[in-house]
Specification:
Layout lengths: L4 E7 L9 H8 L4 E8 H4 L7 H18 L6 E5 L1 H11 L1 E8 L4 H16 L3 E5 L21 H13 L49 H4 L12 H6 L4 H8 L4 H19 L21 H9 L5 H13 L4 H14 L4 H11 L5 H12 L14 H8 L4 H6 L14 H15 L3
Parallel strand pairs: 1-2, 1-4, 2-3, 4-5
Helix pairs in contact: 4-5, 6-10, 10-15, 12-13, 13-15, 14-15
Length: 431
């Protein structure tokens, strides 16, 4: 029996039907489109069985599947090593073409290259598209073609290019939904893929505070942030729609979206930053890397309320306010002299919005080792940060129940730790 020729759209970091450019082009092709998601064992094997991000992915896929059911289609979900899954699919279906949106992380680039080779050997066309950013790879460069390594000129060039084409085109494929492959694939449960429901949940995003974002963004007790970051990370919202909207709403909020693309460009152009200092001159710093100190930082028992509240919020919810992230990261690297890779790895385990490029970029910013970093002699004083941004202790009391019952003393004295950090950096920076 002759198999029907089909094309696949491979969902990855774009878990939505709305304004999805790769899906748009797949549905424009002449073959029925099978929507696919692969739970990649290479990624899953390192995660706890109740990982909140896996729960969120499964929830998002369920929503997509419900939409597809309404038009007589369904989502095909597989689990395994991606290359093994694709080899199996190529045997099961007559696959004419595969469409997907690009991912710029080192593992993803390597994975996609290997999959495209398998598809090519099967005479299957593969097509990839820019979806999670406005400008990718080498689209924003200096006049000599080299990547920017400082944010402000990158931002200026980004804005100049965006304004020349604003608004960025959005891709509505609704009138082509009839081109989905008619199917009734079973949706596996979380338990079926080896996971369980997490008590930690991703919050809905909320944009009603954006008009005065610049006035409220630094005050964690207000809890008036967008909660967009996990949705951007997993693509449940469209970057194009969001940027086109933000461009007319708030310049400071738009700048945060541009920071995201700056860090993605840095990761793409300088993949060494995943594990190494961007500034090699900082490779000689003699970190203390005290494991007991690290445990106290992780558990939120340092004796500095702003630090401890942030870490407890992270451990309990998977979120941490951005201002507090800067304070806790500075404390780990400067006060405790623990290298940024330790903190980056802990955030990778806990953050709902964990994104490799931004996490590495921000940790290297805090440590002073990055491309566009705080100078090494800038050491946040957690007590001053608390007075400036949580003067009444509302945020602190929310996360530290024992705060008014005789809270513990700081594990390290600020003035001493600051002097020690500056001296250690000075001695360790290679000439």
């Amino acid at each position: 029996m002759v198999k029907q020729e089909v094309s696949f759209f491979w969902f990855r970091r774009d878990l939505r039907l709305e304004d999805n450019i790769g899906l748009f082009h797949a549905l424009k092709s002449k073959y029925p489109v099978i929507p696919l998601f692969i739970f990649d064992d290479t990624i899953l094997d390192s995660l706890p069985k109740n990982d909140a991000r896996v729960s969120f992915i499964h929830e998002s896929l369920s929503k997509i599947n419900t939409q597809l059911r309404e038009i007589g289609s369904s989502l095909l979900i597989k689990k395994g090593k991606t290359i093994d899954v694709w080899q199996s699919l190529l045997e099961e279906f007559d696959v004419a073409a595969v469409f997907f949106n690009k991912d710029y992380e080192p593992y993803a680039i390597q994975r996609d290259r290997a999959i495209c080779e398998v598809l090519k050997a099967n005479n299957t066309i593969s097509s990839s598209f820019k979806d999670q950013v406005i400008f990718e790879e080498k689209e924003i460069t200096k006049a000599d073609g080299l990547p920017y390594t400082v944010y402000t000129p990158f931002k200026n060039k980004w804005l100049e290019k965006y304004k020349s084409m604003a608004p960025v085109k959005e891709y509505d494929a609704t009138d082509m939904f009839t081109n989905f492959y008619k199917s009734n694939f079973a949706l596996p449960t979380l338990e079926h893929i080896g996971f369980e429901e997490s008590p930690i949940k991703v919050k809905p995003h909320n944009l009603k505070f954006i008009a005065n974002y610049q006035d409220i963004r630094d005050f964690p007790a207000l809890d008036q942030t967008s909660y967009l970051s996990p949705h951007l990370r997993f693509g449940t919202v469209s970057t194009r729609k969001l940027v086109n909207w933000a461009f007319h709403k708030n310049d400071v909020f738009l700048s945060e979206l541009i920071w995201r693309e700056f860090f993605m460009q840095i990761l793409f152009s300088f993949p060494k930053v995943v594990t190494q200092n961007f500034k090699a001159a900082y490779d000689g710093i003699q970190w203390r890397n005290n494991e007991e100190d690290f445990k106290r930082w992780c558990s939120g028992t340092t004796g500095y309320p702003m630090v401890d509240a942030g870490m407890r919020q992270l451990n309990e919810t998977g979120y941490m306010h951005n201002r507090v992230r800067m304070v806790v990261a500075s404390f780990l690297c400067k006060h405790l002299l623990i290298q940024w890779q330790w903190g980056e790895a802990y955030f990778a385990q806990k953050l709902l919005d964990y994104e490799l490029s931004a996490n590495v970029g921000n940790w290297q910013w805090a440590a002073g080792t990055g491309c566009d970093a705080a100078p090494y002699f800038r050491v946040f004083n957690p007590e001053i940060q608390q007075k400036k941004f949580d003067e009444k202790g509302i945020y602190i009391r929310k996360w530290i129940s024992e705060f008014d019952l005789g809270y513990g003393k700081p594990m390290v004295e600020h003035a001493m730790a600051r002097d020690r950090a500056i001296a250690t950096y000075k001695a360790g920076i290679l000439k």
